[in-house]
Amino acid sequence: MERTKKDEDTRKKLLDSAKAHFLEHGFRAASLNQIIKETGFTKGAFYFYFRSKEEIFDALVGETAAGIEKILSEESSEWGVYDRSERAFHMVSAHLGHLPELVDLLQANKDEARLLLTCAEGTRYENYLGRLKEADESAGNENLKNAFGESPIDAYTYDVLMSGYYAMIGQIVLSGASRDEMLQRMTDIQHVYESGIAGLIREKTLKD
Amino acid sequence: MERTKKDEDTRKKLLDSAKAHFLEHGFRAASLNQIIKETGFTKGAFYFYFRSKEEIFDALVGETAAGIEKILSEESSEWGVYDRSERAFHMVSAHLGHLPELVDLLQANKDEARLLLTCAEGTRYENYLGRLKEADESAGNENLKNAFGESPIDAYTYDVLMSGYYAMIGQIVLSGASRDEMLQRMTDIQHVYESGIAGLIREKTLKD
Amino acid sequence: MERTKKDEDTRKKLLDSAKAHFLEHGFRAASLNQIIKETGFTKGAFYFYFRSKEEIFDALVGETAAGIEKILSEESSEWGVYDRSERAFHMVSAHLGHLPELVDLLQANKDEARLLLTCAEGTRYENYLGRLKEADESAGNENLKNAFGESPIDAYTYDVLMSGYYAMIGQIVLSGASRDEMLQRMTDIQHVYESGIAGLIREKTLKD
Amino acid sequence: MERTKKDEDTRKKLLDSAKAHFLEHGFRAASLNQIIKETGFTKGAFYFYFRSKEEIFDALVGETAAGIEKILSEESSEWGVYDRSERAFHMVSAHLGHLPELVDLLQANKDEARLLLTCAEGTRYENYLGRLKEADESAGNENLKNAFGESPIDAYTYDVLMSGYYAMIGQIVLSGASRDEMLQRMTDIQHVYESGIAGLIREKTLKD
DNA sequence: TATGAATGAGCCTTCATTCAT
DNA sequence: CATGAATGAAGGCTCATTCAT
């Protein structure tokens, strides 16, 4: 352990102050001057620990973001082992299987989740949820095409549905609910989507 | 014709430049200096036409926002004439009835819609979609309670579903689709929600 | 009469608005933009009647200032006819003789008097009272020297006393009192100065 | 010694430049840009030492103002110990007793005194002398009433005389005279006021 | 480790004035 | 007689960052 206790104190105070300001005003509108002043330290101290305003944001959310991405990549490596034409069916169950893990992570890092989802404008995490969605979506599109030839749901409708799904996940994450409540609600919307999409496909098929 | 051509030119150039910058960087991060410099006019010229940075944003989106709000208020005055216990059932059809009108408005004002939904941080339109959702949601909650005593869907789940719905509407609006495609997709997600919510209620009821 | 009635209306409205703003904020802090906006006319209209911000101030106070200066110059031309060595004794009575006239002028132009005394910073009337005092003072010094050889009151003390005198005159003018009250108070301070200066000279003489 | 020499240099240069500009143009008309440019430093440097334009004015005059107020409050706590009906008689001697102290302070801070008296428009020291006068005056009025029942000098005349007195004190302070000259002149005007007011009361009494 | 002095570009806004029409 | 478009300099202030010590 190289860092002394005092070290950690300073760093931690800076992180805490930054977190509070970013949560209140967002990354861009938050003033680094204010953040630093509030700790009682000086600019020099800040720049000893962090190379820039963005870096301290990164220091706050980086781990959580990495955790999220790790879980999502585990998901995809799970359904990735199946044959191209079957992946679509395994995607959902892989996702559901990892939900508890994801919820645990977000529960343990509520502030960081909020920073990522609503305070990141001006950082490289800008539109974080949107980009997660897009990654997920393009994989989903691919898998659907391989499974059904022409997908029963066109790419745009799928896009829209994914937007809604991710928005709801975001909403749940930011709701302040307990772990179990979160899981329950996430399962609920899964049900809604299952029944809903089945209904939609039925409808579309009848029309033709 | 009160305004001379030259008049309109300057004002329009300022509006165009502002629109471009707001779309690219958002209201807060956009630089008024930059906006003005690009038109070839001076700061004084800007302040002849607009009282402030926020006012030019308002000049860009105000009409569109008013149009949206007018449509939504027409919706609610439609279901408002029914008995308290029946309003919930008329809400959806009133909403559907006005969708074409809404879509037409948004189609005709794509840039303005995007400004409202994604570039308004720092103006009084901040979180515009969220506030529309909240207004809609509290009315919806009220109506559900009056229709079913205890609503079949708890308030939080309803909240989450509304977030998803509004996110999807936003996504569709911003998608660059044609009028008819937009309407089609909006109808599609209506179907998904109908079937989906029916499924969710079935599920919940069976459990008990 | 060259000016039409409408003419006078516009000009008068501009003058009134300017007067109100100058009285409230002083010349420098008053905003020409505001002054003009309040009349409902435009900058062009203003600059048709007045060449500059300062000129409208001048238009407001010029006549009153000229009136004051005329009275003061009449005073001095009155004692000026006497022999050098006797002028000092006629100065005071000339001053007293013209007081009613001066008071009448100031009573009839209260606002203008206030503009001159307390709102002129930034114009050529800046420190108006001070400069009146100085003119009066240098004449007084001259006359005293001619009357007594070495004046019983040294120049600096005379300077100080004059400052007090003019400050009191200013105070009375700005007090909002009636014509007769003003005259009464001015006479009162004349008495104070007479007795007071006599006392001072007695004191000084005894010491030597 | 906490501050390095370089430290003091910058701060002092800024203060000096500010003092010069405030003395020449007054607080409001002085340009902060100009003040800073003249030191060779940048805006950032200024705002490292001072929070605002007003704060540097405060830094210049604050101490002197506090000193003046301390002396005046000592005066009033001196006559404050006497019985209500006797305070009027002790006011003057308390005032005279503290004059040397006051003069010493002002002699040692001539520039600051001038800033306070003639350059403070736009700061919280605006009309500084006037407010000192008013405080003094209301105490004086109270004491006179308690001493004489109905005061021999009506409130308005007293007000006028106080205006003159404070104007003269101001004049003396700004005159550039030496300590002893200042004291001499202040004593002189005390004599003038004593004899003068006595004369005025005599006059008034005879009339009735 | 941490200080604190200094940078310099940039922020939005207001000003008095000009002038073609 | 009056409009209204446009100027351009200046206003006070905040920003994230650098660096010698």
Please supply descriptive tags for the structure shown above.
mainly alpha, about 80% helix, DNA-binding, homotetramer, 9 helices, about 210 residues
Task: Explain what the structure shows.
Four copies of one chain form a homotetramer. The first copy, chain A, is elongated and about 70 Å long. The mean pLDDT of chain A is 91. The first copy, chain A, has helices spanning 5-25, 32-39, 43-49, 53-79, 87-108, 110-118, 128-148, 155-173, 179-207. Helix content of chain A is 78%, strand content 0%. By secondary structure, chain A is mostly helical. The interface between A and B is large, with 37 and 37 residues. Chain D binds a DNA duplex (21 and 21 nucleotides) through α1 and α3.
Largest sheet of chain A: none
Give the number of DSSP strands of chain A.
0
Quaternary structure state of the chains depicted: homotetramer
Helix/strand class of chain A = mainly alpha
Alpha carbon gyration radius of chain A: 21 Å
The largest interface is: A-B, 37 and 37 residues
In angstroms, what separates the terminal alpha carbons of chain A? Answer: 68 Å
Topology as H/E string of chain A?
A: HHHHHHHHH
Q: Give the CA-based shape of chain A.
A: elongated
Helical residue percent band of chain A? over 70%
How confident overall, as mean pLDDT of chain A? Answer: 91
Strand content of the residues of chain A, in percent?
under 5%
Low-confidence stretches of chain A: none
Tally of alpha and pi helices of chain A: 9
